[in-house]
Amino acid sequence: MINVNLKNKIINGDSLKELKKIPDESFDLIFADPPYNLQLRNKLIRPDKSKVDAVNDKWDKFESFKSYDNFTAGWLKECKRLLKKNGTIWVIGSYHNIFRVGSKIQDLGFWILNDVIWNKNNPMPNFRGTRFTNAHETLIWASKNKDSKYTFNYQSLKCLNDDLQMRSTWNLPICNGKERLKDKGKKVHSTQKPESLLHRIILSSSKKNDFILDPFLGSGTTAVVAKKLGRIFYGIEREKTYFEAANKRLKNTKVIEDEYLDTLPNNRSKPRIPFGSLVEMGVIKPGTEIYDQKKKINARIMADGSIKYQKSEGSIHKVAAKIIGAESCNGWTFWHYQSGNSLKPIDELRQRLIPNS
Questions:
Q1: Backbone angles phi, psi at 105, to 5 degrees
Q2: Cβ atoms within 10 Å, residue 194
Q3: What DSSP line would sit under 65-114, residue for residue?
Q4: What number is the average pLDDT over the span 47-62?
Q5: What contacts 126, CB < 8 A, 6 or more positions away?
Q6: Is pLDDT at 100 greater than 50 in this prediction?
Q7: Percent of the chain at pLDDT exceeding 90
Q8: Residues 175, 197: contact at Cβ < 8 Å?
Q9: Does the structure show a pLDDT above 60 at 356?
């Protein structure tokens, strides 16, 4: 049950202190965008001598790697406690910190599911010409432990990617244009993440009404996208300027209408049950007549699970495809059986054999 004191709220406070106040196993999903500890020693200057607006904020500075590691272990330990047993966590970082973060993730017993590369379509160039242009960031996706039955909306991600399996390299632009929050022409937050990135993360690994935590909320992108997608959110942000910007942004965010928030079911997660199993187990008997939805076509079920229609015989899928003149057809939804005074798809009979259906 979701704590009503946390539901759809963001607070201005120290992350570690606030996390300690939250009950165990509260969240289905956590997205964390912690300080990267960039270790910038000099000002960045463009060829035209103008200064680059880089990340040089106090919140990103640590005395040593050890102090950063202690900080990382502290908030990750709390996130592990707060994650439900089947929950997952996403952490984003750059080459400065992601390897150290990944080490702590494994030390604490999380189970890494994927590392995802966010390829930036429009990265900041390397002005000095001394290194490769840093054009990506890395995300680590991990479950609470190796036995977690985590959410992964495989079919939705495949649909999002033009019916191709979603890969672990994501080509998305950095936050810019109207989406980038500015105050008097200056960026409100130096590392504001694009909504497209959070849309993909939240869509892939949560369900409608799941509870999402962002312990480093920044300018509020996680909460904004969670709200749009019908998820419940809770965010913590230490810097008051960012908190106020996120709060204002949230108030102007509208939820997508509920009827448009459904995700595609994951067919891969269902056990594969042949039509013949229904015959073997007596759910439907040989000789039973089955029909198309309009009852203009009828076929008979054979003892081996095949069906016979006029001079055609074969599987429920093969015969249905031949009837409609297509290469393939889902026989489970094409064929119907008589149930009282109504016709029902034979797929309903299959549901009796699926555990917990």
A1: -60, -45
A2: 20
A3: HHHHHHHHHHHHHHHHHHEEEEEEEEEEE-TTTHHHHHHHHHHTT-EEEE
A4: 56
A5: 132, 133, 134
A6: yes
A7: 65
A8: no
A9: no
* pLDDT at residue 128 in the model: 67
Q: Give the least confident one: 62-66, 325-329, 344-348, 353-357.
A: 353-357
314 phi, psi to nearest 5 deg: 160, -160
Helix (H, G, I), strand (E, B) or coil at 338: strand
**Residue at token pair 């259906």:** 357
Question: Token pair of 207, please?
Answer: 């369900």
Which class for 254: exposed (0-12), middle (13-18), buried (19 or more C-beta within 10 A)?
A: exposed
CB 92 within 8 A of CB 32: yes
Q: Cα torsion for 333, 337, 338, 344, to the nearest 10°? A: -20
Q: Residues for the chain: how many in total?
A: 357
Nearest to 138, CA basis, from 195, 90, 106: 90
- State the average pLDDT for the chain: 88
Q: H or E stretch including 211? A: strand 211-214
pLDDT band at 70 (very low <50, low <70, confident <90, very high): very high
Separation between Cα atoms, residue 56 and residue 35, nearest integer Å: 11
Residue ranges in the chain assigned as alpha helix (H): 15-19, 65-82, 98-107, 154-160, 195-205, 221-228, 240-251, 275-280, 316-324, 331-334, 347-351
CA dihedral 234, 238, 240, 242 (to 10 degrees): -70
Smallest CA-to-CA distance from 71 within 122, 147, 29, 15 is with: 15
- Distance separating the N- and C-terminal Cα atoms of the chain: 23
Exposed/middle/buried for 51, CB within 10 Å: 0-12, 13-18, 19+? exposed
How far is 19 from 15, CA to CA, in rounded Å? 6
CB 220 within 8 A of CB 31: no
Exposure of 245 by Cβ count < 10 A (0-12 exposed, 13-18 middle, 19+ buried)? buried
